[in-house]
Amino acid sequence: MDRALDDIPDEIAALVENLVVLVEDEPPADDPDLLGLYDGVALTDRLSNHAGALPDRVFVFRNPLQEMCASEDELVDEVRITVVHEIAHHFGIGEAELHRLGYA
User: Fold this and answer.
1) Are the beta carbons of 86 and 4 closer than 8 angstroms?
2) Pairing of strands 36-39, 19-24
3) Residues 1, 75: contact at Cβ < 8 Å?
4) d(CA 66, CA 4)
5) What is the DSSP string of 15-58?
6) pTM of full prediction above 0.90
């Protein structure tokens, strides 16, 4: 996990504020193939009174990621892609744009 987070582009990491990345073994039961999840209010949707709120959260789901990867290097790449994908939601970037950018 640390290796994957270290590989997130500096220009993205520098813009992230009040966001935590958490690792859980399994995704929600209603979406068992989910690799990651953003839980928060996108920067583009925040109101001026959002200050002081708890951090937004990015969840990374360990077991589905490990099951889809054949090597540690592949796992590091997939975790990085998953975290960047979820951070993009933090910035208000939707699924269509993520597909276009190769992060979906």
Assistant:
1) no
2) unpaired
3) no
4) 13
5) T--SEEEEEESS--TT-TT--EEEES--GGG--GGGTTPPPEEE
6) no
CATH number assigned to the domain covering 2-43+55-101: 3.30.2010.20
What's the pLDDT tens digit per position in 18-35? Answer: 889 999 999 999 999 999
In 3D space, the residue among 40, 85, 47 whose CA is nearest the CA of residue 65 turns out to be 85
- The residues with which 45 forms a beta bridge, in sequence order, are none
What type of residue sits at position 58? V
Backbone CA torsion sign across 53, 54, 55, 59: negative
Q: Where are the domains positioned within the chain?
A: 2-43+55-101
Q: How far is Cα 75 from Cα 68, in angstroms, rounded to an integer? A: 8
Identify whether the C-beta of residue 65 lies closer than 8 Å to the C-beta of residue 24: no
DSSP secondary structure code for residue 60 in this structure:
E
Q: From the CB of residue 89, how many other CB atoms can be counted at a distance below 10 Å?
A: 20
